[in-house]
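FORM 7B: Structural annotation worksheet

SECTION A. Query
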Amino acid sequence: MATPPEITTKNLTGIYLHNKTLSDSTDEILRLQGVSWFKRKAIANFNLTLYVKHTTGDDGFEHIDIDQRLSGGIPGTTENRVMNWEDRHTNDDLFGAVVGKSRRVSLDEIEDEFLKTGWTQDTVDDQAIEALAWSDTPISGKDWRANQIWGFEEKDGVRRYARHIKFTSSERNPIPLLGGSYGIRGFRFPIPIEPYIIRFTRPFRSPWLLVVLGAAYIVVFAFLARAQWYLTPADAFVDCTSVYWVENAGCGLNGEGCEPFTAEPFDFRCPAQCSSTVLQNPRVVGDIEVDFQPLIVGGGDPNRTYRGDSFICASAIQAGLISDSTGGCASVQLIGNFSNYLPTSAFGLSSIGFPSNFPLSLVFSAPNALKHCTDLRNPALAFNTLITCLLFLVLRPKPIVLFWSLLCIGFWHVTLFSQPQATPPPLDVAFGAFLPSLFVGYAFWRLAFRFTLPVFVNAPFEGMIWYLAPFWTGVLTNLTMDKIPIDRLTPADIKEQPGGVTALVIIVLILLVLVVNQIRIIRKTGWLPYYAGWYILGGLVVMVLALLPGLEFRLHHYVIAMVLIPGTGFPTRLSAIYQGFLLGMFLNGVAAFGFDSILQTAADLVRDGPTGSALPSFVTNSTTYNATIPLSSQVLNWASISDSVSQEGWSTFALLVDDVERYSGTALNYSLQGLNASLPHFFRLALQSSDTVGDFTMPATLWPNGTWVDPLPGFIY
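SECTION B. Predicted structure
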C-alpha cells in the first residue's frame, strides 16, 4: 500500500512490509556478509516486517530504532541508529561484528548516481537518511561495506518507503572470461573452457592425492638439487666473481697474499649465466676504467692468456670452454708473469687489454676429471613451472594450500637453482631465512591473498595465467630485470650507471599509473581512508628512520613487495597479477640476499667502491719529469701528508705499479730502476693507516717514449 503523506524522512515511525516483487534479490549480499545458506533461504521464503520508531533523544539527536520480524513473529535483527555520524560498534546476531554510523544528508552531497536519484520531492526537501555500515574485519573476518540511502520514491505511481543500497566487498568474484558465451553481430558462441577444466579435474582434488604427489615432488626436487650441487666436489665450485688476484692492494706487497703465481692445472665448475655478472663499482686496469661489465683482461693472444684478476668463469666462457646458459667445467693453469695482454671478443663477451706485465696469468683447457658439470637451473625451472601449473589446473587445492605451495616452491627454487647465495648453496643460511619468510607469508595471506586467490576457484585457467606468469617473472628478477640499468635504489648508484635516471623515471611513471588505478579500485570499495591511514603512518615511520644520523635508508626489493602487497587485497585480475609478481620478487630478495637491513651505514653501501677518503698527490708530473734521464735512474716522488690529513689517522703510503702493490711505507719517493723500459707503466697512490688502505688516485702513465701523463682528478678503489 502507499505510504501516507504524513510519513516523511523526518518521521519514519510506522510498520513497513517488505515487498519482494519490487526489490532486487539480497541473497548475494547476505552471502558476502557471512549469512549462512539456511538463514538466507529462510529470509527469502518468509515475509519481512519492519517496526520503526523515530524519535528525538535527550541528547538532541534523532534516534531511529527498527525491529525486524519474519513471518510468524520470528525475531530478526535490531537496528538502533543515532543521527550523529559517529562510529558505533555492535555485535549483530546475523552479521556479526559491525561498525555503523547514520546521519541526515542532502542528496546534493551524495556522489553515487544510484544512491542520489529517483527520490520524491519531499525526500529532497526534508533530506534523506544515510546509513553506512561495514564489517569489523579484524573481529568478524569478513570484508564488506554497505552504504544505504533511505527515503521515499514512486513505484508504479505509488509513493513507497525505499532503501537504495550500494554494497561492496573484496570477496566478490569476477566473472570467468572463459566460462561464458560471447556474441558477434547477433551470433553467440560459448567458450566453456573453465567449466570443462573443473569437471575434468574433479577426481584429482582429493587431499590424499595432493599429499602423495607433494611427497613425490619433494623427492624429485631433492634429487635435482643433489645432481646440481652434490655430485661435484665442493672445492671445485667457483662463483661468477671468483678470481685469483684481488683488486688493488688486496694481495699485499708484491702480491704475496695471492701466491703461488704458478701452479698445476686445476679443474673447476662454473654456474650458468655468469656473463650477466658485472662490476658494480669502477675498476682501473692500467689506464682504463672498467665498470658494468665482467672483468676480463686479455685472452687475445694465441694461447688465450688472461690476467690473474679476470673473472674466472666469464674468461672461461669467452675462451669457449664453458656454456653461459648451462655452465660447465674447465681446467685453469697459473703460468706466472706475462706481458701485453691483448683484448678480444668472443661468445658475447669482450675483454680489455693491458700493455704492461703482471705477475699472475691464467690459461684454460678442457677439464681432466670432473663430471656432472651441467647446470640444471633450466630443467629445474621447467619442472617447477609445470608443477605450479598442475596445482592450478589439475589438483586445484584450497586457496590457502595453493598459496603456501607457491611460496615454498619459489623460495627453494631461488635458493637451490636460480640465484643461490654461494656455490654450493649454504643450507644453514637458507633455513635461517625460510622461517621468517613463512611468517611474512602468513601476513601476506591475511592481508591480501585470502581476498583475491579464492575468487579464481571457478576460473582455474585464468588464475594460472594471472598468477603464475608474473610470479615466475618475479622469482627470476635477476634475469627478467637484468637489462634495467639499476642495481640498487641509492642516489649514487642510479646516477653512476648509464641510463639509470631514465630507467628510474620510467619505472616511477609506470608504478604511478598502476598505483592510481589500484587507489581507484580501493576507493570504490570504501576502504580508501583505512588503507591511506596505514600507508601514511608507514611513510612517516620511514621518514623518521631515513633521518637517523649516520644511517642511510635502503629500499630493498623484498621490502617493496612487503609494502605493496597489502594494497592488492581486492578481487580483480590486476590485483592477482600484482600479487603474483610481488610474491615472486619478495622470494627472490629474501632467498638470494636474506633479510638485509633497511638501515645501513655508508660503509655498508660502498662495497668495493671508493670511500671518499683523502688522496695523496704526485710531485712528479708532466712538467717535472725529465725524459732524457734513463728509466733506471728515474725516481717517482709524491707530496708529504699534511697535518689535517694526518689527524684523520693516515700515516703511510701504498703505491701500485702496474696494478700491483710495490711499496708500503712512509717514504716520499720510489725508484723506477727495476721497470722494463720497453713497456708502459701505471702508477696509483693511496694513503694508508695501520690497518686500512684509502682510495687510490687515478693512474699516472709513463709511456716507453718518455711521455708522462698526469692522473685525472678523482679517486678509485
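SECTION C. Observations
The first strand starts at residue 14 and ends at 17. Residues 427-452 form the longest helix (26 residues).

SECTION D. Sign-off
Analyst initials: ____
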